[in-house]
Write a structure and sequence with these properties.
This protein is an alpha/beta fold and 241 residues long. The chain has a single domain (7-231), classed as 3-Layer(aba) Sandwich (Rossmann fold), CATH 3.40.50.720. 44% of the residues lie in helices and 15% in strands. The chain has helices at 16-27, 39-48, 64-69, 94-122, 144-164, 182-187, 191-199, 209-220, and strands spanning 7-11, 31-36, 52-55, 76-79, 126-131, 169-176, 231-234. The longest helix has 29 residues, at 94-122. The protein binds NADP nicotinamide-adenine-dinucleotide phosphate.
Length: 241
């Protein structure tokens, strides 16, 4: 994986999985454009890893195009920013549902359209990795909006792969299970809650953010030249139990 002269846009780069992806890409020579919505996170990141930064809130769909215009051309895209809301199905509010759908599915669509149009216009190949979730195919209690948004992202991944493939553009997703980001650690620190889930994972543990980042790098890379339209479980085998 030699990404010298390659520019990679990573959304959600301020924390968690996106944050873990940036230094790995930089180690392989990529110029990373890190997008998130908290300037302090981006300043801290840029003080540790050489990268360009964009501070914007992807929930504001109308400003996405102008926010990233200055970062083009981009060679590879990682749609990692994601959000959730905890509401039971019968209490799910339309505004919250739309907010989660906008950040998790509509914003990745808009960003992918921006870079794909540019690639098609210039006649160059490209790759996109969408960070989805195992929740895309599960019924996780109190996560109607989140599960629907990740299922939408998976569906979009397949359509993008089908339509953009002839232009040399590959699109895949990674679908992690519980990942021990700071928030993940907090949410899953209670053994009573965590142990039954871990027991169903053949490898017996949750993920570290870097382990998801490594899968993202593989799917972006030329080593995955014929991998297209895949929603890759990164879950220690949970999906087969
Ligand atoms: P995280 O630790 O909360 O980090 C998410 C990053 O994205 C943060 O920097 C956050 O900024 C940024 N972000 C969120 N909403 C944004 C918006 N509207 N505009 C711009 N940036 C935004 O989350 P994570 O656990 O790494 O999750 C990353 C992705 O993996 C998400 O798509 C998530 O659904 C998926 N995933 C996570 C897990 C898990 O267990 N952690 C499992 C499966 C899938 P702020 O901090 O300012 O909000």
């Amino acid at each position: 994986m030699d990404w010298k002269d390659r520019r990679v846009l990573v959304t959600g780069a301020g924390k968690g999985i996106g944050r873990a992806t940036v230094p790995l890409l930089a180690e392989h020579g990529a110029t990373v454009v890190a997008l998130s919505r908290d300037q302090r996170d981006l300043d801290l990141l840029a003080s540790e890893v050489c990268c360009e930064t964009i501070c914007t809130d992807l929930a504001d769909l109308d400003v996405i195009e102008t926010s990233v215009a200055g970062a083009l051309p981009i060679d590879l895209l990682v749609n990692c920013a994601g959000t959730t809301t905890l509401q039971s199905f019968v209490s799910t509010e339309i505004a919250e549902f739309n907010r989660v759908m906008n950040v998790n599915a509509v914003a990745p669509m808009i960003l992918s359209q921006i870079v794909a149009r540019d690639w098609l216009r210039r006649g160059v190949a490209g790759a996109i990795v969408n960070v989805s979730s195992d929740a895309a195919r599960r019924g996780v209690e109190n996560h109607t909006a989140y599960c629907a948004s990740k299922a939408a992202l998976d569906a979009m991944t397949r359509v993008m792969a089908a339509e953009l493939g002839p232009g040399g553009i590959r699109v895949n997703s990674v679908n992690p299970t519980v990942t021990l980001t700071p928030m993940g650690k907090l949410a899953w620190s209670d053994p009573e809650k965590a142990d039954p889930v871990k027991a169903r994972i053949p490898l017996g543990r949750f993920l570290e953010p870097k382990e998801v980042a490594e899968a993202i790098l593989f799917l972006l890379s030329d080593e995955a030249a014929m991998v297209n339209g895949v929603c890759l479980p990164v879950d220690g085998g949970l999906s087969i139990t």
